[in-house]
Amino acid sequence: MTYDTILVLDFGGQYCHLIGRRIREHNVYSEIVPHDIKPEEIKLLNKKFNVKGLVFSGGPASVYDPNAPRCDPNILDLNLPVLGLCYGHQLIAQIASGKVEPAKHREYGIAYVTIDKPVGVLKGLDKKEKVWMSHGDTVLALPAEYETLAHTGSCPVAAFRHKEKPIYGLQWHPEVVHTEKGTQMLRNFIFEVSNCEANWKVEDFIETAIREIKRSIGESKAIIGLSGGIDSSASTALAAKALGKNLTAVFVDHGFVREGEPEFVKSTFEKFGVNFILAEAQERFLQKMVGVADPEKKRKIVGEEFIRVFEEVARQVGAEYLIQGTIYPDRIESGFRKFSDKIKTHHNVAGLPTKMEFKAVVEPLRNLYKDEVRKVAAQLGLPKEIVWRQPFPGPGLAVRVTGEITKEKVEIVRKADNIVTEEIEKAGLKHSLWQYFAVLTETKSTGVKGDARAYGYTVAVRAVESQEAMTASFAKIPYDVLERISTRITNEIPQVVRVVYDITHKPPATIEWE
Ligand code: XMP
Fold this sequence. Notes:
Bound molecules: xanthosine-5'-monophosphate
Distance between the termini: 43 Å
Oligomer: single chain
Number of strands: 20
Helix content: 25-40%
């Protein structure tokens, strides 16, 4: 079965993946493709998908940058519906020889647009609409074959369409929740303009994925790195269906795991009947970390050592393939894209050493978003504790101790993390938060414990709300919960004298400290 598909051309915008996810929420498949994709390549993709429309994403560049990402202008002649957003909007205007004013500075935030013509993508909208604008360059005028559909005080052409072809541009971001009727705008593009049928369901994914795993691995043996997180758990459950006893799940205890984790994972997956190996590797990871303070180096070391452990286990069990739980945003944030900045190296993606002993790495969830993975996991019968688990980074507590790691520091942060988890969950806040955890900082400060001066560590508590981890807000958790956390940490962990709460959103901070 081929699915109706919208391709999102990636011009480097941070919200690019969000567009993809929002399209899929409507049960229409979407893929993110490079901005310089050729018209012939789009036609070729039709063997796999039924391409019904194209979205040009936003991006950090100005259309006037000499190195700005461009698309092949012939794409606009494919007769496929096109929706340009922000940079995409400006680019279409520039290709059409419209008047685009270069940006003096970038302005963003909420704006109120006047809808002059509620048609096509803007069908059903009111005269005034609240949108999330990102003003770089501004489109001032378009040639006669285009018409303006909306404007603001500073943006004379905030939305446009081609008079004959299904080509639209919006200066704002409909994919962001702050655009009040963003969903309606996307729905209009998907169903009214592109005539898609809502025929993609995450449930169908399971059958296809199992077939693909079987095809890639055949009768050979494979191992999978099982961390107990939602991604690797869902991959394990999928791969177990495809490979049965030819699959061995390996939990690597690198010493940076949460309290009680190896036991929890083992007991959960034993019920699934998979071969399970607990690789005790605490000492070797710790040794590799001696003298290393740089976060990116720490991530690389953990990634590399992981693979070495896997290779050893694979040799023992005779496995030729490695299965990984990499998901779509991991690939995006690790900077596989040309025009987006690399934020950090996720250990299960770019942290991989280039030389591996495996015949191939198979990533069954590589095209799914987190909420889709949760659906898959639930469908596969994984328990709620796993399906709704908060994300935990592959390098684990190693990136929650800032700077150089020691055994003592890891033990402190593990205890603090456990206290944060217990108190948040006791307060019934678990389901409203994306993540909550403790970080051991390098800052030491003076305290007083039992009438004596104490000089000790500072623990930072982080709790965030988020939908997909690309953006996050610090959570306004009640003071009494914070007070209990702080009291318990300073009472139960003698080395800690101070607890602080992280009140930074993402951006500008990331969720993890390293
Ligand atoms: P940041 O810190 O970049 O994290 O805002 C975004 C989300 O990704 C998680 N994270 C990781 N997940 N391997 C993973 O599988 C990693 O190396 C890794 N680093 C960060 C983080 O917890 C947050 O949910």
